[in-house]
Amino acid sequence: MEQQNLSVKIKRIFSDYLRESNLTDMMYTYLVLKKTNPSEIFTASTYPVAWQDIYLSNSYQFIDPVVLIAMNRITSFSWAECFSLTERANLTKVFTQSAKQGITGGYTFVLHDHCDNLAMLSFLLPPGDESREINIIENKSNIFQFLVDTHAYYLDITSNKKDSSFDKPLFSAREHEVFYWASKGKTNVEIGCMLGITLSTVKFHLRNICKKLGVTNSKHAIRLGIELNLIISP
């Protein structure tokens, strides 16, 4: 409920800004996720509600090409830059699903803060409507400053709330160990011998890792772990 109330407050701030900036017809999403635990996510959005539900319920932030690009850059970008990432079959799922909701293109502003969060402000761009993207590009400095100010407000509000779950690590210590050695090419049997655990326990931890990342196999989990910098040395 607290997140919902905060989302409403931030959407009011956006409404005022977009009206003053002559961008009232733009659909947007302000998204914040913890880089050390991307399962912790906050959004304030005017995207279609059906798509918001699909995105959050499936934890698409783990495989969203827009998020993966934003993780590794500090400048704004058009979603057209994402399509090279979608060569991997599992990543096309996000764009395929979003297209069914009329979401096919956009432009994203990126902010990495001192609390290890990634903040993103994305605007939808309908196909063939170049004027909106031109408008955004011409006002990049102003929009980015607005993102900074809005995110400062978000941090001020959330820093006063003691939510122990927010800083809870994504993986347990044992899962980190298993994930690390799996990423180094060790087999399940080798990992079990190195850590002094049974083969079934290794498989159990790998299943949990895959489940938390929203993927179906350990190879995909390792690729995502590398992309999101989630694999750490034990």
TrEMBL record:
The major lineage groups are: Bacteria, Pseudomonadati, Pseudomonadota, Gammaproteobacteria, Enterobacterales
Q: Which PROSITE patterns match?
A: HTH_LUXR_1, HTH_LUXR_2
State the species of origin. Scandinavium lactucae
Q: Does the keyword DNA-binding apply?
A: yes
InterPro entries in alphabetical order: Sig_transdc_resp-reg_C-effctor, TF_LuxR_autoind-bd_dom, TF_LuxR_autoind-bd_dom_sf, Tscrpt_reg_LuxR_C, WH-like_DNA-bd_sf
Select a single GO molecular function from the record's annotations and give it.
DNA binding
Alphabetical UniProt keywords: DNA-binding, Transcription, Transcription regulation
Q: Which SMART domains match?
A: HTH_LUXR
- In its UniProt record, which GO terms are filed under biological process? regulation of DNA-templated transcription
Protein name per Swiss-Prot or TrEMBL: LuxR family transcriptional regulator
Q: Which residue numbers delimit the HTH luxR-type domain?
A: 164-229
